[in-house]
């Protein structure tokens, strides 16, 4: 007997949606700020760094929220671990793609965009709590 219960909640109503939305906004703001102050190479480098953080987080959220309900508890835990492993692999692969495939590239801007988006993820509990109160 398969104890999986698919989660039918729309993606925009999941707890991860406000965090991912905020991460997307921060990636765009970081890219725009870098572009204005340091030029277009820094701008797209910062955007790429932000996407290197954002895309694996979106993958992780997709994996974790695929199932719901008490009967799916084991499957959810399994998805959590496989989602985290996939997130790490995807992050490494995206960094390699950016370093190898994009020329010219501003490494400092890549890390600035990446760290800016990671900072949003680090404050995810505050973001989710704020959006759930309204």
From TrEMBL:
Q: What is this protein called?
A: F0F1 ATP synthase subunit I
Q: Which residues cross the membrane?
A: 14-37, 43-65, 85-102, 108-128
Record-linked NCBIfam families: PRK05760.1
Q: One of this protein's Pfam families, by short name?
A: ATP-synt_I
- How does the protein's chain sit in the membrane according to the entry? Multi-pass membrane protein
Alphabetic keyword roster: Cell membrane, Membrane, Transmembrane, Transmembrane helix
Compartments reported by the entry: Cell membrane
